[in-house]
Design brief:
Blueprint (H helix, E strand, L loop, with lengths): L1 E5 L4 H6 L1 H10 L4 E6 L4 H4 L7 E4 L3 H11 L3 E4 L4 H9 L4 E5 L10 E3 L10 H17 L16 H14 L7 E5 L12 H15 L2 E4 L6 H10 L5 E2 L6 H9 L3 E5 L2 H8 L3 E6 L4 H4 L6 E5 L17 H4 L3 H12 L3
Parallel strand pairs: 1-2, 1-4, 2-3, 4-5, 5-6, 7-8, 7-10, 8-9, 10-11, 11-12
Helix pairs in contact: 2-6, 4-5, 7-10, 8-9, 8-14
């Protein structure tokens, strides 16, 4: 069987799809499985062992051409967009499974209704439910998923490269390393304050003596520079200087990530590193990193989760979280408690 998986468009979402993709691979172990996704996602899935081929999105015309050339028997569309379904429909995949969102039901051969639990259950189950529908339709039943925690492999080669990146940046080799990710590309409201991150950095460095590095994309450079500028003991700023593959590898050899609700918060536990994630306007019930190695901090405010990208009032969900509270939680995690 020739199977296509249309991947999601954000890092955190991509990580949350891993249990569903792993289940699909277990259902069809001998199939040729292809991932159609954005360029950056190759860095996440290239060493996963889940796919035989990865092709990247481009124009609608290019996607249709790539899909049509491979003559897929089955396509599973993980994102909810109309465009993702249109490309695969025009590409001639024989059976197309996806959720009936954005008026795209006619583009799907198997259009599933969005589960009633969509806003009250973790997003991992949203993707697992879609794959379960494939199993019921094509294999005549459904089986339990034994392992529903997202995990990603980081090769020794990538870990070695990450170690070189840290050494060249000035990290001290024999003390713990804490990564801080203060950005968030799609929402200002999800960002804890730069002052808070700077104060947290200073306490981590002066009281625990750990390395502190800043991670993020090129779009996060403005906020990482602000954090570094506010700190008394400036952290090492690597934002925008690593590929996603290198960032994942750096996280895999770090001891803790402290971040906003963003893609790296999901990536860290997936590669085996603890994450302390500061939540404000978004809902940790549905979108927290799905791992026992992920920990949440949030303020108990009446307006959260509002899901807004810009706060219309005083950003109390973030400003009421103190650097001291985050530091104390981080210290407990680093001590293994």
């Amino acid at each position: 069987m020739n199977i296509l998986v249309r991947g999601t468009n954000w890092i955190g979402d991509a990580v949350m799809t891993i249990p569903a993709i792993r289940k699909l691979r277990e259902m069809f172990p001998d199939a040729h499985m292809t991932l159609l996704t954005r360029e950056w996602a190759k860095d996440i899935f290239s060493e996963s062992g889940l796919f035989d081929e990865i092709i990247t999105t481009g124009s609608l015309f290019r996607q249709v051409k790539e899909v049509r050339r491979r003559r897929f028997d089955l396509a599973v569309i993980l994102p909810n967009s109309f465009r993702s379904a249109l490309a695969i429909r025009l590409g001639g995949a024989k059976q197309i499974f996806g959720y009936a969102t954005e008026r795209r039901s006619l583009l799907l051969t198997h259009a599933l209704q969005v589960p009633a639990s969509k806003n009250s259950r973790h997003e991992v189950y949203y993707y697992l439910d879609l794959v379960a529908a494939v199993e019921r339709s094509l294999l005549g039943g459904s089986s339990e998923v034994a392992d529903i925690e997202p995990r990603l492999v980081v090769s020794d080669t990538r870990r070695s490269r990450a170690h070189q990146i840290l050494m060249q940046a000035g990290v001290v080799d024999d003390v713990p390393t804490v990564a801080i990710a203060p950005g968030s590309t799609n929402s200002d409201a999800k960002r804890w304050t730069p002052v808070g991150f700077a104060r947290l950095n200073d306490r981590l460095r002066s009281e625990l003596g750990v390395n502190v590095i800043l991670l993020g994309s090129r779009e996060d450079r403005e906020v990482t520079r602000e954090v570094a500028g506010l700190a008394r003991h400036p952290p090492l700023d690597l934002a925008g200087q690593t590929s996603l593959a290198d960032a994942a590898a750096v996280l895999s050899i770090s001891d803790l990530l402290i971040s906003n609700d963003m893609g790296l918060a999901h990536l860290a536990p997936a590669v085996g590193t603890a994450a302390l994630v500061i939540f404000g306007p978004t809902n940790p019930v549905t979108t927290r990193p799905f791992s026992e190695n992920a920990f949440i901090m949030s303020a108990n405010v009446e307006c959260a989760p509002c899901m807004l990208r810009t706060c219309p009032i005083d950003h109390r969900c973030m400003t009421r979280i103190s650097a001291d509270d985050v530091f104390e939680k981080a210290k407990v995690i680093l001590n293994g408690n």
